[in-house]
User: What shape does this take?
Amino acid sequence: MFMTLLDVSVTNVALPSIGDDTGAGASQLQWVVSGYTLAFGLVPVLGGKLGDDHGRRLMFQVGVGGFVVTSALSGLAPTAGFLIAARVLQGLFGGLINPQTSGLIQQMFRGNDRGRAFGVLGTTVGLGTAIGPLVGGALIALGGPTLGWRLVFFVNIPVGLVVLALSRRLLPPPTETTHHRLDVLGAALLGGATFCVLFACVEYDALRDARLAWLAVPALALLGLFLRRERRLTLESRDPLVDLRLFRRPSYVSGITMALAFFPAIAGLPLVLALYYQRGLGYTALESALGVTAYAVGSAVSAPLAGRVVTRIGRRLVVAGAVTFGVGAIAMAIVATHIPDGHATLALAPPLFVMGCGQGMLITPNQTLALMDVDPLMGSAAGGVLQTGQRIGLAIGQALIGAVFFNSLTGDSVASYSRALGHAVIAAICFVSIAVAIGVHDLVRTRRREARA
Assistant: This one.
C-alpha cells in the first residue's frame, strides 16, 4: 500500500524531467499524474468484491504483480503516450491492492489488535503520501535528468517482488471457495459515476473550466441507476456488487460521510502549500518537500498511538483529530503571513506537525470505527466503498481548494501567495467543520441509543 500511495505524489517531482526527456507537453504531463489518479479511484469497490469472493491473498498478489509489471513499463516508456497508458494500468492494479489491505486487517485481527493494525496502516498512509516528493527528488538527483525519473518507477520492482514472496508465507489462504456471480452491470454503472466525478475534478484542477460541473448530471443519473439495481439485487439476495445492508450500520455510514467531508481538506492544503513554497518563496521541489516533513512526522507519530486507544475512546478521538487538524491549519495561515521569507520551513514546522497529528488521529481511527460492525466476509467490499469515498474527497479537495487558492492570487509577490494560502485554509476549514459536525452528531446519537438501552 505504501508503494501505491507513494506513486501518487512522487511523480509530481519527476514531471519536469519527464517533459524534457520525452518531449511531453503540459497536457500530457497532467495526464501522467491524472491517469493514475483516475484509474486508482475507479476499481476499489470492484476489487474489494473480487477479494471477498475469490480470496484476498490472491487478489492482493494479482494487484502487486500487475503493479510491478506496469511500473517496469512506465520506467521503460519511450514516449509520453506510452507512459500515460502504463500509468493508467498501474493505477488500476494499485486500486486493486488497497481494498485487500483493509479486508485482510478485518480478517486477521480482532478488538484492540485491529485498532493497532489500522494504526500501523495509518502511519503507512501518512508517510506514503507525504514523503513522495522527498523520494522523487532524491532519485532524480541520483540518476540525473534522464535516468532519474525512470528510477522513480523502477524502485517499485524490487519492493514488489519482496512483497510477493512474503505474501505467500504471511497472508492467510482462502478458507473456503465461494462462487458468486459478479455484478458486471453494477460495476459499470458505479465506475461510470465515479469516472464522471473524478474526471471533472482532475480536469478542473488543470483547466479551470467551470463547464466541467455539468458532469455531475450523468454522475448522479448513473449513481441513481446503480443504487436502484443494488437495492433490487440485495432484496432478492442475488449477489450485488455492494450489499446495501452495509448502510444499515450507523457506524459505517458515519465513517463514509466523515471521509467525504475531511479528505478534501487533507488533499487541498498540502497541494497549495507546495505551490506557496515553490512559486511564492522560490523553493525547489526538494526544498518544498523538506518543508512539509513536519506534517509527515506528526501523522507518523499520532497514527499508531491513536490506533491503540481508538476502541476505548471511539468517535471522540476522530472529532478531536478533525479539530486538531483545523487548529493547525489556522495557525499555519497566520504564521505564513508574519514570517520572513527565508525562515518559512522552521516557522511553519510546528503548525504542520499539529496538522499531521490531527490527520493521524482521524484517518485510520475513522476507518477502524467504520468497519468495526462490518462482517469480515464483506470486509474488502466495505473497505472498497470507503476508499472510493476517500478518493472522491481527495479529488474534490484538490479541485475546489486549488481553485480558491488560484482565484485569490493577485500577483507574484510573497504577500499575494500568503494571502491566497489563508483563503485556501478558510475553504479547508469549511470541510473540517462539516466533518466535526458529522462526528458530534454520531456521538450524540450513540449516547441517546445507550441511554435508551
